[in-house]
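Students often ask what a 'structure token' actually looks like in practice. Rather than answer in the abstract, let us consider BnaA01g33730D protein, a protein of 118 residues. Its sequence is given first.
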Amino acid sequence: MPNYFNYQANGGSLVMKLNERPSPSSMRWKACILLVSKDEDEAGIGEMVNVHHGIKQNSLDVSCIPRNHTLYRPLTEHLYIFEFEADVTSDELCFEFRVVNKEEWMIKECGMHYVNTS
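Now compare that with the structural description of the same chain:
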């Protein structure tokens, strides 16, 4: 996981505590996941992997744009970086990532970085 992602965790979820409670506004995030094939022999052969992500704040789901991403023909280990946006009003956020093809793929690590747009 690149050090640029200052919040990191093993698995597909992590909790981020912000230094202060943000005013209600849209925030942009850069996410990184390490996607790993459970079967090295079959990985990447005509494969398409769907990754869903979400944020919970105060135990409630927050709408993210976009809500999911599709990887075409990933390698047996694939570091995937993408951006998304969400309205944030809490100082503690729980980011969750999951793969639809969980019989064949798993998220080994994940990382987050706030993208300052000002």
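One point worth highlighting: The mean pLDDT is 80. Ask yourself how you might have guessed this from the sequence alone, and why that guess would often be unreliable.
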